[in-house]
Amino acid sequence: MIEAVGLTKRYGDKTAVYNLSFQVRPGAVTGFLGPNGSGKSTTMRMILGLDNPTVGHVTIGGHPYRKLPNAPRQVGALLDAKAVHGGRAARNHLLCLAQLSGIPAKRVDEVLGVVGLQDVAKKRSKGFSLGMGQRLGIAAALLGDPQVLLFDEPVNGLDPEGILWVRNLMKALAAEGRTVFVSSHLMSEMALTADHLIVIGRGQLLADMSVTDFISANSADFARVRTPDTEPQQREKLSAALTESGGHVLPEQDGALRVTGLPLPRISDIAHDHDVRLWELSPHQASLEEAYMRMTQGAVDYRSTIDQKEGLQQQLPPGARPPMPVPGQGQPDWYAPPPPQQGGQPFTMPPQGAPGQAPAGPYGAPGAPGAPGTAPITPAASGAGTPNPYAQPAGQPPQTPAQGAPQTPAQPAGQAPQPPAAPAAPAPQPSAAPAPAPTSDLTKPEDPR
After folding, report:
1. Are 40 and 152 in contact (CB under 8 A)?
2. For residue 289, how many other CB atoms are within 10 A of its CB?
3. Pairwise CA distance, residues 162 & 155, whole Å
4. pLDDT, tens digit, for every residue of 120-141?
């Protein structure tokens, strides 16, 4: 068991921990919570004798850490996963710790298998990732098979499988009757792992209770009630009856009622007495994160603000308009809209290719129908069923003028089209060869661009 009595630690004018008293009992996982700078790491260092308290004392099993006989065999700790010589292999690092504490070498191989590092046991730790370093630190804490274990952010850098493994490991160690003291900022993991919580803020004790009691004491539980949507008069009737019975009723956006101050059986009895049918009657409890944020909101030293971006925005040129805001942009689950569609296919770049070669299609294949080696265009492939605003009228072949040819206005109906006048021949260039005449594909509609 870990017992702290009146712990106070000052660094000059800075008071990191002030009059902190608590007990960490065996047989349960005790979570150690608090904002950044609240004194969690300082408290753990004082437990392990790395820092001397200014006032107060802390004991492990009734003795200070420095007076424990062969302390590594009784207390295992992970405070800094990077406290490893980078040029030393993982197995050699653990072997050095084992020899200092009189632990047999076979225990080194056992803990390497427990943490899953047996395949990289001979690799230098400087090449380890953050998660691998955490596993090596946990192996060092388990090396002496101690009865008291302290972990500071043990899941930092671990993948989901590693997080699940650490969670099960903590529970298994506590089930064996060991004292497990875990510090973490992941509220979801603490809710699944810890049985008891010690919460501090600005070096002072804020809470020392079980997880269930902590959530109940720092959050408002409520009942969600829903009546038939087709009968709004029943909703008003039930709301008035619950208010008369001492409940506090708040409407929600989806038409349900949020009821506080009344237990669920009492709400059900009131609805039955007033002949009101219920479509939903469910309890709702706040999460550990919500309860923690509510308790520690006044003990947070570092708060973020909105980025104003002052002086970083480029000035618009004269006459330019600012960009229009996109509805919903910046909100959760927002995605950019798809590109515009033409004829069932996305807009593509203008066809480019060598003279005399059919333009490439939207996916790189030759796009000229009927060309050798190309498949005929089917209605599904050509976007049939979707009106094309740029298509030629029915019964007229599409016109694709040659490059450089002048455009002639459309002729009235009933008159034969007049051939366009031949363009003047360009002056011959002595230093350049004449370019070949571009080919035109009369079977494709004119490019709308």
Report:
1. yes
2. 14
3. 7
4. 999 999 999 999 999 999 999 9
Place of tokens 């599409």: 398
Q: Strands 196-201, 2-11: parallel, antiparallel or unpaired by DSSP?
A: unpaired
H or E segment to which residue 130 belongs = helix 130-142
How far apart CA 190 and CA 196 sit, in angstroms, is 9
Distances (CA, A) of 126 to 85, 108, 344: 8, 19, 55
Q: Which amino acid is at 406?
A: P
Q: Where are the alpha helices (DSSP H) in 3-122?
A: 40-47, 90-101, 106-115
Following DSSP, what letter does each residue of 309-359 receive, concatenated?
Answer: -TTTSPPPPTTPPPPPPPTTTTSTT--PPPPPEETTEE--PPP---TTSPP
Is the C-alpha dihedral spanning 107, 112, 115, 118 positive or negative?
negative
| Distance from the first to the final alpha carbon of the chain | 79
Asked if 341 and 385 count as a contact pair (C-beta separation under 8 A), the reply is: no
Residue with tokens 């298509």: 391
Q: How confident is the model at residue 315 (pLDDT cuts 50, 70, 90)?
A: confident
Please state, as a whole number, how many other Cβ atoms lie within 10 Å of the Cβ of residue 142: 20
Task: Give the model's pLDDT for residue 122.
Answer: 93
Q: Inter-axis angle of helices 264-273 and 232-244, to 10 degrees?
A: 120
Mean pLDDT in residue range 411-430: 52
* Residue 298 parent element (H or E): none
Instruction: Please state at what angle helix 130-142 crosses helix 90-101, rounded to 10 degrees.
Output: 20
And the tokens for 419?
Answer: 């051939």
Measure the CA–CA gap between 217 and 221, rounded to whole angstroms.
10
As separate numbers, helices (DSSP H) first and strands (DSSP E) second, the chain gives 10, 15
Mean predicted lDDT score pLDDT of the chain: 80
Nearest by Cα to 438 from 400, 402, 398: 402
- Whole-angstrom Cα distance, residue 334 to residue 377? 37
Residues 86, 168: Cα–Cα separation, whole Å: 29
pLDDT at position 228, please?
93
Radius of gyration of the chain (CA): 37
The DSSP H or E segment spanning 250 is strand 248-251
* Residues 4-17: b if buried by 16+ CB within 10 A, e if exposed: beebbbeeeeebbb
Please state, in angstroms and rounded to a whole number, the distance separating the CA atoms of residues 338 and 334. 12
Burial class of residue 279 in the structure, from the number of CB atoms within 10 Å of its CB (0-12 exposed, 13-18 middle, 19+ buried): exposed
DSSP-assigned letter for residue 36: T
Given a contact cutoff of 8 angstroms between Cβ atoms, the answer to whether 124 and 88 are in contact is yes
Whether 372 shows a pLDDT value over 50: the answer reads: no
pTM passes above 0.70: no
